[in-house]
Amino acid sequence: MMPQIDNPLGFLLNPKSVAVVGASNGVGKVGYSVMNNIVQSGYSGRVFPINPKSPEVFGFPAFKSVVDVPEDVELVVVCVPARFVVGTMKQCAEKKVRGVVIITAGFKEVSEEGAELEKQIQAIAKEANIRVVGPNCLGVITPFLNASFASRHPKRGHIAMVSQSGAMMTAVLDWAATCNVGFSNFVSIGNKADVDEVDLIDLLADDPETNIILLYLESVEDGEKFLKVVSKATSKKPVIILKSGTSNAGAAAAASHTGALAGSDTSFTLAFERSGVIRATTMNDLFDMARIFDQAVVPKGENFAIITNAGGPGIVATDAFENNGLGLTHFTPSIEKELIANLPAEAATHNPVDIIGDAPPARYKTALEIAFKDDIDVCAGALVLVTPQSQTEPAEVARMLVDVQEKYPERMIVGCFMGGISMTEPAEILAGTTVPMYQFPEPAINSIKYACAYNKIKAAVPLHEQVMPTISYDKEAVTAVFDSVKAEDRKILLAYETAAIFTALGVDCPGTKLAKSPKEAGEKAAEIGFPVVMKIVSPEIMHKSDCGGVVLFVKSAEQAEGVYTQIMEACAERGPKGANLVGVEIQEMVDFKAKAKNSEIILGINKDAQWGHMVMFGQGGIYANYTEDVSFQLAHKYTAELARAQLKQTKINTILEGVRGEPRSDIDSVVDVMTRLAQLVNDFPEITELDMNPLLVFAEGEGYSAVDVKITIE
Amino acid sequence: MMPQIDNPLGFLLNPKSVAVVGASNGVGKVGYSVMNNIVQSGYSGRVFPINPKSPEVFGFPAFKSVVDVPEDVELVVVCVPARFVVGTMKQCAEKKVRGVVIITAGFKEVSEEGAELEKQIQAIAKEANIRVVGPNCLGVITPFLNASFASRHPKRGHIAMVSQSGAMMTAVLDWAATCNVGFSNFVSIGNKADVDEVDLIDLLADDPETNIILLYLESVEDGEKFLKVVSKATSKKPVIILKSGTSNAGAAAAASHTGALAGSDTSFTLAFERSGVIRATTMNDLFDMARIFDQAVVPKGENFAIITNAGGPGIVATDAFENNGLGLTHFTPSIEKELIANLPAEAATHNPVDIIGDAPPARYKTALEIAFKDDIDVCAGALVLVTPQSQTEPAEVARMLVDVQEKYPERMIVGCFMGGISMTEPAEILAGTTVPMYQFPEPAINSIKYACAYNKIKAAVPLHEQVMPTISYDKEAVTAVFDSVKAEDRKILLAYETAAIFTALGVDCPGTKLAKSPKEAGEKAAEIGFPVVMKIVSPEIMHKSDCGGVVLFVKSAEQAEGVYTQIMEACAERGPKGANLVGVEIQEMVDFKAKAKNSEIILGINKDAQWGHMVMFGQGGIYANYTEDVSFQLAHKYTAELARAQLKQTKINTILEGVRGEPRSDIDSVVDVMTRLAQLVNDFPEITELDMNPLLVFAEGEGYSAVDVKITIE
């Protein structure tokens, strides 16, 4: 028996008792498969088949209903048709069971009625405090209990797999049977009526049997919960997610599949990154990574040696190391000398170390042991390439790798045995060791990259422990503006309103005031200081210039009074019929041509349905949509550091940093604005869009000017 | 016996006789392996072992030397140590053999002396008209003869593999032994002292046994020959190349490996594209593609159906189709109705067609046959996804696919059997059929993409048949300028020289004349028309403004005279000591602010050591190096069409096309300049660099102005 896991779902991995509703002696029925799997898995708890027609199932006395079971029932597995499931749930509630795994399909994934049934199930579960896995799932497999209808049992190991698709789970089980990979848990989550991926990640992070968590997901149920919880798991063990529905067509297919509303792919990437999740891009990728995290020694550096018995694969591997951003060991001269002294004259002792085609296992050993004399930060490990040449003894090389690994337990050793038929024996030898084996160099190196990336995840402060520094500003003033906009039932703020918000937020923008009469125009223009720009204020007028609603370079109070009348008249005549002409805004004119440097950037916020607000930074100006030089980050726990990282992802950043002898731009002030915007949308979730384009950035110390800003609220 | 192949290297695939220099009865020796392979391969020609110490080898009478063989010898395989190879070559020359395969290593790949030996071999071969494969290679395997020291014989099939790395070849042979893939030829080309990849591509294109040619290359020996010859092969059959040494470190490793000088990767991509070669990016990629080209029906369209028994993999596949730029079939309404009528209610009949988890083989058949009722351009074929669920019979599904394929021979059917242990039987069933099988959706779809891409290659006019339209211009004038520059032993042209060249070439640039006295300055300025710009002309002065060498807005002849003196004095004082002040150039001032639209682009030419001149197009201006919005194309057989395609690869193109109500830019004239530049460098290969930045492009019909141009020659 395993120790009790301190997690709300801990009981799921090893319940004291299991009832199977729909248990059957009839081969081919789901209720048969489930019973058979429970028995075959050597489950040591109490088993209660529920079947109104049979007195016994699989030799266990059967009961007509869950409520008839004379003992406590901790977990119930449901295999009866969809129309009976609500009834079963009511019985489970009456019996006070802790959890229900609903294998049955036919709910929200097929129809409106199904969705309705699923809602009833959710309501009963909530009321009775029952945790529900499924419906529409394959079940749950743990080291102690196989409560699924899968036809294969995984070999025991330390990989947990959670899948939104039952079929993906069967495919993985089938694949695992051929490749010496062991699993701790398999959970198929189906429609996620209650238990979702976050609950399971949290559970499996607490499971001592699990070292690595793989997920196949089509959607994430609750972005906020994900961001709150998942980093707790990723700071303990690697969590790797293959998220499908990344394309438009794929998202549509996913929506019809489990009724999932897929979020935008960029935001998923960001959310996974921030939570410390490693994202797999293909199925191969997922399994390649599983292998390295399951087996390999954690690398203590990012520079590796390549030991090869052939030049060609060495070059392929060298390309892959560089293309994956990993380093190749530059051997210390004394070490390279030792390699030269101990290897044949034809060998290449520079990295990649080519020990040439006739290399026996001992020569691999020599090369590896000399390489590992170098410091671990110079040589964190080795990729050992083996091609089947006439003198090669792949099985002996594999055994040698295990020996060397034992002697150098801190160095990561990854084997790449290229070929097929000669490489099955090495595969068996290396299974279960700390030396993972690959068939080709590229997937091996891709996986090494992720192993190194996970080190960074472990070293970083996890998201759930991060604190967003509070920026204080005049929140009341902002609230007041939003209130007045909402009172008028508008969604888009007028320029003087955005100006008021930015002023309150501590973001510089040209002084802007609203005038409602010629006299007021003259007064307010004088307050701002000349010259000023004057623009019509009207929610109905989008293109102000087109109807004579903008006048630049107004130079005196007297002129301002005249321009007021001119604008109001022009807009009344040329604007949309019945447009509400609120007045004229008076704006400070920024003389940006006088600045030492002047770059146009774009800052923005938009709101993702799943992951909340995202901060955008990029190259601005009228062509911003065409240059597409932008980067995004979630506003959740946003910091100046994240802002700076966003800048570095763009090409405009190089220009802001100062090229061709130009001064550096005022990057600090841009970062300041970005953090203030994030603070604003964290405080005011009703903001759906915010757009500053262009934000003119001047030379260091000279600030910026937000000349054109739009804010939209819900 | 195969028919004689009409190719200079035809004899290599089935020589009438083979002598093995270094043939041996000693197990473990290379000369033993080669003899053994020749015998095992059932070679039907004459075999002559050459061994001065044994009277017979493998039962064949042995000879002391090639010259001692009493009959004609067509091919000689050499396995003796490097120091004996030159002697052997001399004997081969005396014997007048046609070809020599030198397996022996120890030439240019190891040392200067080796390189010297290799040069001697080349000289003898050239003199005696002997074709040489190798040295430093594994040998040659054909359907009729295994003249290699590889330890495995490939299954007979129709894939030819050419490898610059012998070990890569052994790995592929080993891999092939496990996965039901057959090969026609295997050629290891080693150091390519004579026979290179282009010779072999040309030979294999003529080989009736070969349907597809795979290559592993670290370098290309002769770019010009490649561009001239390879498209002949690619218009006959697919040629797929994995080119390593793509990274900086990889290129360095390749250089130390076979002494290959790797060219820039971009130019390789372009050269492969232009020649109709498909480029594999990883080893997996190479083999995945080999499978589809070897087996599958050529797709007659680019829209495919997905038939799946599980939603999850269907979504993964949908993503992959979209991400690979392929189309998914939108079924004709009548077809979709038929799918609905014939599939269970829970099935998804939209593409992907999810025939759900309990699908027996017959349901796959139903879905496929209905899908194939749609027109072939709507549904060119199907990806069939099989996950191992309880009712699934993978082997039966595989057999059914073969049946359906027979009935619909024009539709491409690709199987994706997800899993491991349950999928070995289907793999055996589908081997050798026209239904290739993959384990995961992504590589299957990636391969389908290449199958579709090859259709476009076949449909296009192959490079060797393309004719570059001749643009006539005043070539003599250009020659005269270059001659005078060369006479002065300069490499960088002065502005009035580039202006003369562009004028001769028919490219507009601001009128520029050289003045060597104040008086001449006044006269030439008047000829050009005012205002003019005046700039110092001096090969030693790079930054003209910095030493007072530039004056703008010169408005009269009188002023021009004064400015001449002013510039000459300023540069004499502030320029580099001893700078040669040739004179002052007088340039027309372009009033580009008066133009309706004005975009800065960059055009350039640079010369790749391997592939010759490349034309560059991109976003110009002072930040061109930072925006990196550029595209390249080989100048070889350059056309306006290629120029337009180059434009479309950049972001600036959208802006040139006209956005935000702006007029379209004068794209035609940009294309005209690009073709003229290509013509120029084709005629004057001594040009190493040409840079126009910015080229100001105005609105359609208003042309452009090449305000700043640099030309460098060898």
Keywords:
4 domains, homodimer, 23 helices, Rossmann fold, alpha/beta, 7-stranded mixed beta sheet, 6-stranded parallel beta sheet, Dna Ligase, domain 1, 714 residues, flat
Within CATH, the superfamily of the largest domain in chain A carries the name: Succinyl-CoA synthetase domains
Question: Structural class of the secondary structure composition of chain A?
Answer: alpha/beta
Q: What is the percentage of strand-forming residues of chain A?
A: 15-25%
Q: And the CATH topology of the largest domain in chain A?
A: Rossmann fold
Mean pLDDT of chain A, rounded to whole units? 92
Termini separation of chain A comes to: 54 Å
**Low-confidence regions of chain A:** 257-262
Order of strands across the widest beta sheet of chain A?
A: 9-8-11-10-12-13-14
Oligomer: homodimer
The count of helical stretches of chain A stands at 23
Radius of gyration of chain A: 32 Å
Estimate percent helicity of chain A.
25-40%
Count of separate structural domains of chain A: 4
CATH architecture of the largest domain in chain A: 3-Layer(aba) Sandwich
Q: Sheet with the most strands of chain A? A: 7 strands, mixed
The CATH class of the largest domain in chain A, by name, is Alpha Beta
Task: Kindly state the number of beta strands of chain A.
Answer: 30
Largest interface, and how many residues on either side?
A: A-B, 95 and 94 residues
Approximate shape of chain A: flat
